[in-house]
Every structure is written in structure tokens, then in C-alpha cells.
Amino acid sequence: MRPIQKSRKLADVCYDIRGPVLEKAKQMEDEGHKIIKLNIGNLAVFGFDAPDEIVQDMIRNMQNASGYTDSKGLFAPRKAIMHYTQQKNIAGVTIEDVYLGNGASELIVMSMNALLNTGDEVLVPAPDYPLWTAAVSLSGGNPVHYICDEQAGWFPDIEDIKRKINANTRAIVVINPNNPTGALYPDALLLQIVELARQHQLIIFADEIYDKVLYDGATHTSLASLADDVLFITFNGLSKNYRSCGYRAGWMVVSGQKKHARDYIEGLNMLTSMRLCANAPGQYAIQTALGGYQSINDLVGPGGRLLRQRDLAHKLLTAIPGVTCVKPKSALYMFPRLDPAMYPIANDQDFAYQLLAEERVLIVQGTGFNCPTPDHFRVVFLPNTDDLTDAMGRIARFLDGYRKSHGTS
Q1: Is 193 in contact with 223 (CB distance < 8 Å)?
Q2: H/E stretch holding 204
Q3: Would the pLDDT of 290 be above 80?
Q4: Angle at 29 between CA 391 and CA 383, to 5 degrees
Q5: At 250, phi and psi to the nearest 5?
Q6: Per 3-state DSSP, what percentage of the chain is helix, strand, and coil (rounded to 5)?
């Protein structure tokens, strides 16, 4: 029989958050091993439950959720999102500018499919949330990675962005608050990015899914609030702020200079109609979530569980010889660096395999986030303090053995 091959469109697509190392972890679990999973921001499995009022609203509306909704989504949640954009100082958003999706992920892919032709380029941060790179590639475009500078708190390197803009560049992706680094960008930097988009007529795709997961009194500025003469596509959802990953309730908002983008918006509408509608039960959670008590503030504020676990994870990681880490100001992740002189890693996926095999700890290697060098990895700090202490102790023990085996202690 002739072998059945996957599409060539998938040749440059990868998603190592759920990649080969996870497959090995599943195999080990099937063999009876207990794995500490620090690879994905799946809050529910660590005891972070969705607010009760959201759950109750979904239950009460379940009988109304068996039919298709409008292709863009139900009126009430879209109106609530429109009001939320007003709170974020994003001007000119109407109901028709709001699209609901099966998580922000579906809408990210849709936004790229509607835009890109073969050879079009999109500027994507490095490191990035890898779905962005994958979505550009799958849509026929070329992802061009701009550097986020670790020495500058993981902020985007504006000069590097400038160098990489050319006639084929269509858009720039900004992930703020950032996954995987936890960086939060200041307004002055965001304004520089807006100015580049203005000069070169680029679309700004703003991934703001962690805009409420902020520490140390930090505040978040939505990129789309900074101009009305640039086209912005802003993504958000319930997964992280409201611990509702499985509800798949996300949204996309079109704002700014829309007149010259009518054909692109028509493409978005076409793709939205083709998938018929987003998950209806999840849509019923949105209005209550945005308008109700914001319990995320209790988790990230003084004494909050997420804040305590962030501080503990950072303390334990940076106590390991040769490990440095910019302390995250937002989101759920650490992106530590391993000193190459002490940890001569040629292949960081093999490094992740070794850690899994020896210590039963699952991480994601830095190159899985399109980090250009094999000297970083990402961990979530979602386990409770006891489990987090255990996990970081295992990582420390593994790294101690790694140094000894390579003669770099």
C-alpha cells in the first residue's frame, strides 16, 4: 500500500507544549510512573476552579445551548465584551466588531487564514506562544521572529523589529502580558510598536489573554487603546483570568482603522460562518465572568496563591547554580536560563527527555517557543507550594548531576 502522508503545509508546524516529550510522559504514566507536569497552564488540574457563578450560569442556560448561535456569537456576551473594551479604553468597538470563538486559539488561526497569501510575512516574537508561529505557517505565510531581549526584561527589541520589516510584511504579533516569559510591556514601548505599524501600514495582532494575571500592583494597557489609525485585532478569553480552559470561550475584537480593511473583515466573517458558531455553553459564561466578582485579584494580590507560588518558584530556581530567571510580572510561567558554561546543552529537547526520565518532571524546552538558543526552558508555577517545592528540588538534583557528568561543577 502507498503510504498516506500528512500535508506539506504541516512541515514547519510544531506545538511542543504538547509535543514528543509529552508523548513520552504519557507512555511513562501508562507504565505506572507519576509525572509532575509543569508543561502547560491548565489551571483546573492544580485546583484552580472556575468561579461558582460562572458554572451556575452555564448550568442554568444549558437548555438554551443546544442550537446554533449567530456565527459571531450570542448578543449578550458580545455586548459584555464591547463594554469591556470600553473599560480598557479601546474606542469605536461595536457589537459587529466582536467575534466569539472556541478559545482564542481558534480565532488566532482564523485571523491568519483570512489574511495571508503565500510569501506574506508576519513578525512574531521570539520566544513566542508557539501557536502564533504555527498559525502563520499553516496559513501559507512566513513567520519572521523578532527578538525579545532577556537583558532588558524580555522586552521586544525595537531595532530588531525595524530591521525585519520589508515589502512582504503584513502584520506584527504582540503577546502582552507575555507567554512564556511573564513580561509586561510599558506604554512607551507599546507606543513605539504602534508607530512602526502606522509607518508601515501593518496590522497589530494583540494577544492579551493574561491581562488580569498581574503581580506587584502592575497594570495592563491594551495596545488597541493607544491609537485609532492602525488596525488592531485583540484576543482574549476566559481560560486564564477565569480558570475556565475547558469551556473554550474566547473572543476577538477588531478595532482602529477598519475602513481600509473591509475585504479582510469580509474574510473573517466568511470563516466565522463556515464554522457555524462557537461552543454555545461556553458563551453563556462570558457575561457573568466579565461583570461579576473578579476573583483573580485574590489570587494575584498580597497573600494570593498565585503570587506566593510565583515567588517560591523564582526563589528555588534562582538558588540553583547557573540558573537565572527574570521574575515574571504577569501570567503563569517562568522562563529560566541555564548558563551554557555550566550546562553545555546541544539539544534542549533531549535535555527535557533526560529530566523526564530521571526525575519524572515534565517541562517544555525553550526552542519549543522558538527561542533561538537551547539554554532556556519553561515551567508553570501552578502546583501547590509542597508539590512546587518537590518539583524544583527534582530539577535542582537533576541539574547537579548534569554539571557533574559534564565536569562543570
Answers
A1: yes
A2: strand 203-207
A3: yes
A4: 30
A5: -125, 170
A6: 45, 15, 40
Look up residue 269 and give its amino acid: N
Helix (H), strand (E) at residue 145: strand 142-149
Separation of alpha carbons 132 and 18, rounded Å? 15
Q: Where are the beta strands (DSSP E) in 9-138?
A: 36-37, 98-102, 121-126
Tens-place pLDDT, residues 93-139: 999 999 999 999 999 999 999 999 999 999 999 999 999 999 999 99
Considering the chain, what percentage of its residues have pLDDT values greater than 70? 99
Give the integer Cα–Cα distance in Å for 398 and 344: 14
**CA distance linking residue 366 with residue 360, whole number of Å:** 18
Which phi and psi angles does 207 have, rounded to 5°? -90, 110
* Cell of residue 220, nine digits: 495592563
Helix (H, G, I), strand (E, B) or coil at 285: helix
Buried residues in 138-152 as b, exposed as e (16+ CB within 10 A): bbebbbbbbbbebee
The CA-CA-CA angle for residues 120, 122, 126, to 5°, reads 145
Any long-range contacts for 392-396 (C-beta under 8 Å, 24+ apart)?
Answer: 392/313, 392/316, 392/317, 393/316, 394/36, 394/359, 394/360, 394/361, 395/317, 395/320, 395/355, 395/359, 395/361, 395/363, 396/316, 396/319, 396/320
Q: How many residues does the chain have?
A: 409
What pLDDT does 15 receive?
Answer: 66
Distance CA 85, CA 254 (A): 11
d(CA 370, CA 204): 20
CA gyration radius for the chain? 21
Write the single-letter amino acid at 69. T
Q: Tell me the three cell numbers of residue 26.
A: 504519557
